Amino acid sequence: MNLTDKAWEKLFERYNILQEIEKNGFYEIEAKTIKEEREPRLMAKFDHSSNLPKLFKKNGLSILPISRSKYVIGQFDVYQKVTYNQKIKPTQVSFPSDITTIDPTNLYSESSALHCAVITGMIEDVLGEEAFQTVSGKMSSKKFDFNIRTKKGNDLKINVTNSQVEIDGGYESANQFMIVEAKNEMVEDFLIRQLYYPYRLWQGKTYKEVRPVFFTYSNDIFSFFIFEFTDPMRYNSLKLVEQKDYVIAHEEIELEDIIELVNTTKVQPEPQIAFPQADLFPRIVDLLGLLVENDLDRETITLNYDFDERQTYYYTTAGMYLGLIERYTDKETKKVMFTLSNKGREIMRKSFKQKYLSLAGCILAHEPFKQVLLEYIQNGAPPEKGRVVEIMRRCKLYNVNSDSTYERRAQTVSKWVEWILDLPNMY
């Protein structure tokens, strides 16, 4: 268990929180009570369901702030699932040639990605009107109440008084005010509160239509999920209206580029690192992007991004297998830290096309992936799992012994090969 898990275990036991929730349907807890064990800001901010403490996951619980000094815990449905529509071809936008203070090949923070979305016209395209950024940062929610759905299917009324609200970007046009919650990674879900509390605040402050938008910048694609609350009094009335994707204009990747890469990439010996079990290669690209900004320890990755503990291990190990991530122990904190290797940092600085071809080259430098891709191209269809396992068995993989392990890892091989071949279609 991590420090947050241990702290909540103690608080639940000390204050009989589970029993109180069973009796009343919820439990209100003061920030000063949480602070008996750990700082509230570390104990009560879970942007994704994967970040929740073990005790919360086990009992179907979540937590919401109801003031600056109080929270409510209950079996609430607080997250919205995010499904990326892979059939959407991103709209290409031009980056202004006279802008020198934003590097479009280095947008590895949420704020820089949003600034880029403004200057390239994405924000105005989403709104359909000329728009200006008018709001960002922290503010007070004022006073309001709402109904929230519980895991048992009934509604519970919650009262909020001056809770802290944070908006990543607020954009006003002639008829609309768009509130944006931003993440610089692909996610499986997000905390509705991050849109709902600002929505309720600004609904009472402007006569214009308030548009809640969830935004992600992942794998160089800017995705806008445009929502509406069909009933402003209901937290769970969030409904997706439209998804719009954009990408900065670039030299396109062609199938011929992939074939040339296969022919020119030299295979290297298999490293003595666990063979990857991390099916979603775009998540590896996201992780590399996070490490451009800062070195991170395993707990920080798990608690602050949409990774659970197993995924953090799988994806950091996959990055190390490819030679893009390195691990070291911090002398002061004694924590195991992850950082980009020189090779990883060099690749993440490249232009769009060269970055993705270089990442594909890192994969194809490993015999199993190269052989599976060659067979895919030659036969015009993906090899069956049994054939992938057969190829892997010939490649002297490090510490892969059992049939079940080969089969699990074969899934990753197939998925990474699909990612390479899909590059011309994605972009």
TrEMBL record:
<protein>
    <recommendedName>
        <fullName>Translation elongation factor</fullName>
    </recommendedName>
</protein>
<dbReference type="InterPro" id="IPR054266">
    <property type="entry name" value="DUF6997"/>
</dbReference>
<dbReference type="InterPro" id="IPR054265">
    <property type="entry name" value="DUF6996"/>
</dbReference>
<dbReference type="Pfam" id="PF22518">
    <property type="entry name" value="DUF6997"/>
</dbReference>
<feature type="domain" description="DUF6996">
    <location>
        <begin position="5"/>
        <end position="73"/>
    </location>
</feature>
<feature type="domain" description="DUF7226">
    <location>
        <begin position="283"/>
        <end position="424"/>
    </location>
</feature>
<feature type="domain" description="DUF6997">
    <location>
        <begin position="74"/>
        <end position="247"/>
    </location>
</feature>
<dbReference type="InterPro" id="IPR055650">
    <property type="entry name" value="DUF7226"/>
</dbReference>
<dbReference type="Pfam" id="PF22515">
    <property type="entry name" value="DUF6996"/>
</dbReference>
<dbReference type="Pfam" id="PF23871">
    <property type="entry name" value="DUF7226"/>
</dbReference>
